[in-house]
Specification:
The chain has 316 residues and is an alpha/beta fold. It has 2 domains: 182 residues, Type I PLP-dependent aspartate aminotransferase-like (Major domain) (Aspartate Aminotransferase, domain 2); 120 residues, Aspartate Aminotransferase, domain 1 (Alpha-Beta Complex), CATH 3.90.1150.10. The chain is built from 9 helices and 10 strands. The structure holds pyridoxal-5'-phosphate.
Length: 316
């Protein structure tokens, strides 16, 4: 006979499995250090990793800290992984892990196919979802395909730090997470109190508005022709034509619109000779803000300012 408790006491099947950390890079460092202890082989990284004077390198700092061996797999001018090159590297048997970055919170590749390829060579996949907090809004979410996924809280909420990771195989001993790598109570409280779905919806709707503007601006080419249903991009990435990225970036800042350029500088380990596509993107990319603080009242002035900046930069 079924035994029915007064209240639920388990709920394991309803948990998200999030292991909270001080940042996405702390999560990655923890995963890499644990794997390095289990297996001497290295990790394959996409050849598009940035560096900033203030923030360091969110992706490469954990590689340095854990001192794990690494190599890069090439990406094209839309940051799509070169799967043939990747397979040749997998075949070498020198790697235990592959890092897959969902740049701007949108997959550049068929994720299922990518993970299946790596698993065929018994190599585990870490999905980097630092640019998308929920992994999307509907359907199968990013971060659910690989063996691990890392997320960054502060990029999508108003917190100064915070991250979490998923360990789908339950491989790691999370009780050994060092105190310095743990999330702060203040960040966790802010995260819990933020309506993530509503803010993601706003972000997505801002993306769609900017997409309409950009469609009539031949000087800008969107990074994505279209985004999959349910994806929530971090911002609106474009390629600026005629080598005018720098000028447009500063012109917009002068007009009080603060874009980013993800990434304006690549780590020196990714050379222009070996990875020309990566350098093309880094030299020409501009990321227009679409975050959830931008609301209906800002949009008309935002559009006018953007058009004004483009007119000035491209006619001088
Ligand atoms: C793709 C990517 N992964 C990971 C990180 C690290 O995120 P966090 O600042 O939470 O450590 C960043 C940002 O620096 C990033 O852009």
């Amino acid at each position: 006979m079924a035994f029915i408790e007064k209240e639920n006491k388990d709920l394991r099947s309803y948990r998200n499995g999030r292991i909270f950390t001080a940042s996405a890079r702390a999560a990655m460092t923890f995963i890499l250090q644990a794997h390095k202890r289990m297996d001497p082989r290295g990790i394959l990284l996409p050849a598009y990793i940035g560096l900033s004077k203030i923030e360091g390198s969110g992706v490469f700092d954990p590689i340095r800290t854990s001192a794990i061996d690494y190599a890069f797999y090439p990406v094209d001018e839309r940051l799509r992984p070169d799967l043939d090159a990747l397979e040749a590297q997998l075949r070498s048997g020198a790697f235990q892990l592959v890092f897959l970055i969902h740049y701007f919170g949108v997959p550049q590749v068929d994720v299922e196919q990518f993970v299946a390829l790596c698993h065929r060579y018994r190599v585990k996949v870490i999905e980097d979802c630092a640019h998308t907090l929920l992994g999307g809004l509907e359907g199968r979410r990013l971060g659910s395909y690989g063996d691990y996924a890392i997320f960054s809280i502060h990029k999508s909420t108003a917190t100064p730090d915070g991250g979490f990771f998923l360990d789908h195989g339950g491989v790691l001993d999370v009780t050994s997470l060092p105190p310095a790598m743990r999330i702060s109570p203040a960040t966790l409280a802010e995260f819990s109190d933020t309506d993530l779905e509503a803010s993601a919806r706003r972000r997505l709707s801002n993306y769609e508005v900017v997409q309409q503007w950009v469609a009539s601006l031949p000087q800008l080419t969107p990074m994505f022709d279209r985004i999959p249903a349910g994806a929530v991009p971090l911002n609106f990435p474009v390629i600026v034509s005629q080598g005018k990225r720098e000028q447009l970036y500063f012109n917009l800042i002068g007009r009080e619109i603060l874009p980013t350029a993800l990434y304006h500088t690549l780590i020196p380990e990714i050379s222009a000779q070996q990875f020309p596509h990566s350098h093309f993107v880094c030299t020409n990319i501009l990321n227009l803000p679409t975050h959830a603080d931008i609301n209906q009242t800002h949009l008309a002035a935002y559009e006018e300012t953007l058009r004004g900046a483009i007119h000035e930069v491209f006619t001088t």
